[in-house]
């Protein structure tokens, strides 16, 4: 088993780490660097994105012919962790959700004409995108089989009616991927479409207020009342919606984990800094065994997360959907992020509860991790299903050639 990473990946990691340390972390302390929703202000983002592009640290996850560096998923795991040492990091490098997942899926499945129209402007950083799948009750959430938004074929067009919610980035996005029902077939009933913000026949009902800081463009409820989409803007083929979802969501879930590992490490970093200097009852916090156990436990759980993520990334790189590997990584790292923020706040005392450090930001953000891209329970259900199907082979070694 070889846990080394290629020198090229290590070089990217080191350059990202230096960039984040020099340009991004200092902004976290400047209230003027935030927009009204707790994210990096657009003017600062534009400035840093230009810098990242100039330094060749842009869209590293995409192929060179798409405008990236051709990192594989294992390489991405190394680099994304370094990006998200800062709460502002990933979006600066165009490696934040939902653009990240949308770009990767389009790179994989879109036609050349679709790539030119829908993908390239996102890669250039000119527009943002959104992925619209989840619906309010009684529509599809954890179970995509319940999706009710309909796209009815009329000649060379589809006409869409229905409702979606929690669509990240919708208020700022120009390019949308939409999942809609084109038939009642259990496997082939869903189809993925591309549409532009300026098309008539849909609108944003509301930007849903949430407990955490928000991605640019918020999390929106949107309604479709006759949006017309030409057949040429179907992604893959009619009936391939579920397949596209699998192709998109596996890697997208894993990239969340890659980034959350960076945030988890940051929590430990802030906790260790305080524990190293803070005295109480004549003893430094870092010298107390109770604090050492907390930090040792987090260090171990972070490393477990990295191993799960690296294995899932390796499996994806070998062409597998890596369903069980991604599910295990997603459940573990989502809960780890929550625990890391909580523990770091505890070690920092009242300071941890203030906005003087990014810990409270991470704590509020972390709660969504156990819901988005599949709730914990759904991933565990999938894991049990795999266990039922594979039995002891669930843990089989890949013996190779
Ligand atoms: C911040 C944020 C951003 C999001 N961004 C997007 C986006 O950009 N695009 C998009 O399409 N969606 C987005 N979502 C939606 C997200 O993907 C869904 O919330 C998620 O898939 C769960 O669906 P649901 O909320 O309908 O929960 P439900 O399906 O209503 O489930 C509710 C709860 O029931 C339990 N449950 C469900 N199924 C099972 C089961 N099989 N076994 C045991 N328990 C179960 C779980 O605890 C679950 O949390 C976002 C959500 C949030 C919070």
Automatic annotation (TrEMBL):
Class in the EC hierarchy, top level: oxidoreductase
Requisite cofactors: FAD
Keywords, sorted A to Z: FAD, Flavoprotein, Oxidoreductase
UniProt entry tagged with the keyword Repeat: no
SUPFAM superfamilies in UniProt: Acyl-CoA dehydrogenase C-terminal domain-like, Acyl-CoA dehydrogenase NM domain-like
Signal peptide: none
GO molecular function terms listed in the Swiss-Prot or TrEMBL record: medium-chain fatty acyl-CoA dehydrogenase activity
Matches recorded under Pfam families: Acyl-CoA_dh_1, Acyl-CoA_dh_M, Acyl-CoA_dh_N
EC number: 1.3.8.7
Limits of the Acyl-CoA dehydrogenase/oxidase C-terminal domain: 239-386
UniProt domain Acyl-CoA oxidase/dehydrogenase middle: residue ranges: 130-225
Domain Acyl-CoA dehydrogenase/oxidase N-terminal: 10-126
Subunit structure: Homodimer.
Record-stated family: Belongs to the acyl-CoA dehydrogenase family.
Name of the protein in its database record: Acyl-CoA dehydrogenase
Source organism: Methylobacterium aerolatum
